[in-house]
Amino acid sequence: MRAKVSTVLAFLAAPKLWLIIFFILPMMTMVLYSFWRVADYQIVADFTLRNYQKIGGNLYVNVFLSTIRLSLYVTALSLLIGYPVAYFLARKVRRFRLTLLLLVILPLWTSYLVRTYAWMLILGTQGVVNQALMSLGLIDAPFTALLYSDVAVTIALVHIYMPYLILPLYAVLEKIDPSVLEAAWDLGGGRLRTFLSVILPLSLPGIASGCLFVFIPSMGAFVTPELLGGTRSIMIGSIIAQQFGVAYEYPFGSAMALVLMGLIFAAAAATLRYGRPRGTA
Amino acid sequence: MTRRDPAKLVLGAWTGVVLLFLFAPLVIVAIFSVNDSTISRFPMSGLTLGWYRKLFGNAALHAALVNSLIIAFATVVLSCSLGILSAVGIHRYGGRLAGGLRAFSLTPMMVPRLVIGIALLSFYNLLQADLSLLTVIAGHVVMTLPYVILITSARLVGFDKSLEEAAWDLGAGTFTIFREITVPFLKPAIVAAALMSFTLSFDEVVVTFFTTGNDNTLPMIIWSMLRFGITPEVNAIATITVLITGLFAVVAELSLRQAQART
């Protein structure tokens, strides 16, 4: 089948053009702005490295570090919680498999804003958890430290992004050939041994992409730390967002966003490199 | 093997707990939306639909709902047309470049919404463009396009190319083939992709926050209400949006599944 050049262009160019105009050019604008500065509430095209030097200060380095730490916690927890679920769906159920899978996907379709908000109701001073503890007589006064803390932000981010980890993991686990497992059994590998030396290595690609699907949005989280973090748990997303609000520090905000993207790309490159399946399979 | 599998029991129970963790918070929001006290706490003093009634009388909310719908519909139309063209184009003409082209199309997925939003804001700022619903729609299309391409590409994997070739041999033109053969085959994926981009756009707050001018959307109203604390109306709006998007998800999933069963 031969097609005219114009047809090929129509199919390929139109969508690419949209991404170039509304995604690539905006990203390049940020690169440009990150080397400019603000004077008298105007962005001035005046080359400077000051924005990047400012990020090197203690304050911002600490926020970056705590954002990385919190995102790693969220990713690790999601993996620990999600792996058994993906394994169960892929290898242990038949009859209700599709229904259960739908239930896991369903929350992904609901608003992350609403799901963040739900944790305000649960963890707040007047929230469900405090009331339950008080009515059981376990505590006399409500915990005020539940909401507006790293713990609240971590729980909500796990809640919001964990299903993204289950999906690719499920896809990989489902494809493992049962005969491979039977072979491992026949060779005398126990359950644990088979899991550790056969299933786990084979599922590494799913673990890698699943972890990225959780780590990336966590690093850039803005709504969740803003609503649940208060002044005690500050993530870089909130600081970046502030620069694009009344602070009107687009150049500094752009520089921070680019450092964030650099960290994300480094994490993605490392994860995808080490997430290849090992062994002969 | 028919013997009892203890691992299956343990894993099944764990899956149940995880599903509870995923759904209980949403159920709690829904329960409080019919609570007749202004304080969201148990035990509830009584039931009411008053918060829902109050929403219907709220003019600002009406305007926001209309804006959200305009943005979502425009996003669906643009994102699905561009996404289908892109997926089909890559599938047909991509050749050796197919992998790279697809990866490029999916990059916005790898960028946090916050960065998509502020990058667009910087771009509009540089161009001194006025922020409006149009600037929001442009951003929502960037955000939803990868999902459309992903869903349609997955369906195209099972596409029998000989159908197109037969039509070509019988003298049909490229666009006739596209309209009469490719699109009907893709229909279930298009339905799913449309519903998915609708919900993604309808629920989006971060990209909208940075790219909108004076126009509010429904999630933006929820967002501004939440910054002043919890009010019972939020429970009602939240419950309505969750129910709508939940319904869409089920329809989309069934559409894809029926198609899989048929082919």
Provide a quick synopsis of the model.
Chain A: It comes from Vineibacter terrae. The complex is a heterodimer of chains A (281) and B (263). With 281 residues, chain A is mainly alpha-helical.
Major sheet summary line of chain B = none
| Name of the CATH first level of chain A | Mainly Alpha
Instruction: Count interface residues per chain for the largest interface.
Output: A-B, 84 and 87 residues
Rg calculated over all Cα atoms of chain A: 23 Å
Number of alpha- plus pi-helical segments of chain B: 11
- Taken in chain order, the helices and strands of chain A follow as HEEHHHHHHHHHHHH
GO biological process, one term (chain A): transmembrane transport
Subcellular location (chain A): Cell membrane
Family (chain A): Belongs to the binding-protein-dependent transport system permease family. CysTW subfamily.
Protein name (chain A): ABC transporter permease
List the topology elements.
The complex is a heterodimer of chains A (281) and B (263).
Chain A: H1 5-34, E1 37-39, E2 42-44, H2 50-55, H3 58-91, H4 97-109, H5 112-123, H6 128-135, H7 150-175, H8 178-186, H9 191-202, H10 204-219, H11 223-228, H12 236-243, H13 250-274
Antiparallel strand pairs in A: 1-2
Chain B: H1 6-32, H2 50-56, H3 59-93, H4 98-106, H5 113-127, H6 133-156, H7 161-169, H8 174-203, H9 206-211, H10 218-226, H11 232-262
Helix pairs in contact in B: 1-11, 2-11, 3-4, 3-6, 3-8, 3-10, 5-6, 6-8, 7-8, 8-11
Explained architecture:
- The complex is a heterodimer of chains A (281) and B (263).
- Chain A is mostly helical and 281 residues long.
- Chain A has one domain: Orthogonal Bundle (MetI-like fold).
- Chain A is built from 13 helices and 2 strands.
- In chain A, helix 12 packs antiparallel against helix 13.
- The longest helix of chain A has 34 residues.
- The model of chain A has no long low-confidence stretch (mean pLDDT 89).
- Chain B starts with 5 loop residues before the first helix and ends with a helix.
- In chain B, helix 3 crosses helix 10 and helix 5 crosses helix 6.
- The chains are: A mainly alpha (281), B mainly alpha (263).
- The interface between A and B is large, with 84 and 87 residues.
